[in-house]
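Usage example:
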Amino acid sequence: MTWNPQLWRTARRLEAAYQRLRGSPPTLDAPWYAWQKLTETCRLAAHADRRGWRYAGRRQREQLTGNLDYLLGELRTLRGTLERRGRDKLPPAGELYAELVAAEDEFGGVAVQDFELYVTTDPIRLEGIYLGPFEIRLNFARLDEPEPYRVVALEPHPAHASLGTTHPHVHDERICLGEGKAAVTAALVEGRLGDLFQLINRVLHTYGEGSAYVELDRWHGTPCRECDVSVDEDELYTCRGCDEPLCGECVQTCDCGSAACHDCATHCTACGQTTCGRCLATCPDCEEEFCASCLEGGLCHACQEAEEERAAEQEADREELAESDPAVHAPGVGQVVVLARPRHHRNRRLRNLGRR
Amino acid sequence: MKILFIDATGAGFASPIEVAEGTTVGTLFLERIGGDPKAFLIRVNRQSATVNQVLQPGDRVSITPLKIEGAAA
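Running the assembly step on the lines above writes:
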């Protein structure tokens, strides 16, 4: 092994960083987030089942497996940290130097920038999708934190739906280690930095289907807001109400061509046809909303018929009045016959006023 | 004889263990991990090792799966 004075200097800096942790209690993080993820996925799966979204339900159940593994990993990490009973055995510079040499052999180089020690992976391709090489960066000024490392994409090929997701398990440079969390934490605590880099590298070379930030089968598409199916850009609809993306199966369209999601779509009260809010008009009499073909003269068919009935009744009343009292003639210029409205119609008016 | 064993499939801490003289990497792997050794990166004293390599007192053996599934947190 050729002596490398630069790596030795780095090892001494790392040793000093570890020495600063002497006596500090181990970080104990209860896996609340993992538990929340699990319960949230259970809730979404049940919701999808209730609404009959079979595809979304299946995806949520697939995700449950990943969430369970994540929680188990977090629990293992916690138990391992407790078993260590504090950082009483800190890695000496010699051990750290050997770790750096091993990492240099495995990754073709180890570099330091400010307080970050980093290695570069080979270009990564998962399930045929090229993600490029990544830098795994360990900040040795933050060794007291649970995750003092980040993963930087050197040639970012992020998911279409999430530009911060440069790898199925990396979002905003934060890697979610899943099954590898316990082992990485142990390697960090014991100063086995070569193992730490290699473990993170193995996570980057593995695709955990069902537990990714963005699944690889949706990497180049946008997920439909209703069923979660990935949709290519040219087959995507956008809801006019909430601007959410929709697939061709879930979109509801109006005659005017605008698209709406299940929540934003409105329907004609009479015929039930899906119509966007702009193509619906309110009947001034009953104040319900109708499509253009269910309105006549501004009124819905029911109110139109009622209006016609009322006019006929008025006409009949007028004729009856004229016959019973010949002295009363049809109204002349400037005169008008005022008749009471049928009782049922007055009641409806009152109901409408109450609604306002 | 005593060796230092690091099993990255579990909690991942380094533990001193007792093995018989003449134990090979392959024997240790089958006893402690099992399965196909090709699915693991096996290192002795931080160097890649073969299953036929005979362990020596004080060796540091680490076994890392090649596939470790991450998650989304």
